[in-house]
Inverse folding.
């Protein structure tokens, strides 16, 4: 073999594959919600909050206290695909006499009274929330009623997580995630956004997939608490998928910030148990059955295999194809 052939072979073997910089660039260009867009949303939310605050001051008999941003935008893990902005409406404890349907109608009436510039047709009570359609830069705003518990320091009954209201705190959820972000950011948030992008791409292929945003955040938080590092995005994603594949989501995920996980006892096991970091009696994965659990495991196994193949690929093209099977065709490295 000639020296030229040997050099070409060596060069081919050393051809760069998918680097951390490649993944970071894809995240910045395709995945992440732009800072300008996030700032615009937050500005408009602050204007809405000001109107509602004035309404609360002028109408104390309505029981409304204040609003609070929650969800992905509040957590700093929103992607460009964000379809709604989540806001909690806090009410005084005495509003607990209302049924959920009455409370949702009351929320809708408060919004209409406080914000006459919003068309009534834009305000729509749903099963557990009130939707303000296309209100903030074309984004829907989803309003979740919360009835504060007297003397509970921000804890209250939330009406958007299922058939029954749950006792928790979105403010403490933000604090919980902020602790993990302070230890690992900007990398923790970036890996969570990449995971959410994987969920989005997977859901486009399989409408029954549907791993929830908060569940993904809490799995990542669990890994952060157990020594996983996030600066290497490929390695962090592999560890995320590996955890799901190896555990089969059959082990309980719980956190020690506000309770002692060892003291948690349920009458019966759920297929997936990811406990609310604020209230151990809330299983935020209670909506998933065993079929969905194994669906998540199979998807994670496929993603883990693809990233393993990408790591050992001999050409950039082959590695790129593997990454596209995980993060979608828009991934160009």
């Amino acid at each position: 073999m000639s020296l030229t052939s040997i050099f070409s072979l060596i060069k081919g073997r050393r051809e760069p594959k998918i680097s951390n910089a490649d993944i970071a660039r894809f995240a910045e260009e395709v995945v992440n919600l732009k800072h300008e867009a996030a700032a615009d949303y937050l500005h408009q939310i602050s204007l809405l909050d000001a109107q509602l605050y004035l309404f609360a001051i002028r109408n104390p008999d309505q029981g409304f206290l204040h609003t609070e941003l929650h969800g992905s935008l509040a957590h700093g893990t929103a992607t460009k695909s964000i379809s709604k902005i989540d806001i909690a409406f806090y009410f005084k404890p005495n509003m607990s006499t209302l049924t959920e349907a009455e409370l949702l109608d009351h929320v809708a009436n408060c919004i209409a009274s406080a914000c006459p510039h919003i068309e009534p047709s834009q305000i729509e009570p749903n099963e557990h929330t009130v939707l303000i359609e296309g209100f903030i830069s074309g984004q829907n705003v989803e309003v979740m009623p919360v009835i504060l518990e007297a003397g509970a320091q921000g804890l209250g009954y939330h009406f958007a997580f299922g058939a029954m209201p749950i006792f928790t705190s979105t403010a403490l959820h933000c604090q919980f995630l902020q602790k993990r972000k302070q230890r690992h950011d900007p990398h923790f948030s970036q890996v969570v956004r990449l995971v959410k992008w994987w969920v989005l791409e997977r859901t486009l292929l399989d409408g029954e997939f549907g791993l929830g945003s908060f569940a993904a955040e809490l799995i990542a938080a669990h890994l952060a608490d157990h020594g996983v590092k996030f600066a290497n995005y490929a390695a962090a994603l592999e560890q995320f998928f590996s955890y799901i594949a190896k555990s089969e989501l059959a082990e309980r995920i719980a956190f020690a910030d506000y309770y002692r996980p060892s003291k948690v006892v349920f009458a019966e096991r759920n297929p997936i148990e990811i406990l609310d970091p604020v209230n151990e009696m809330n299983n935020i994965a209670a909506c998933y059955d065993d079929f969905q659990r194994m669906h998540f495991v199979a998807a994670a196994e496929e993603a883990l295999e693809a990233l393993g193949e990408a790591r050992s690929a001999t050409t950039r093209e082959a590695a790129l194809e593997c990454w596209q099977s995980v993060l979608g065709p828009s991934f160009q490295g």
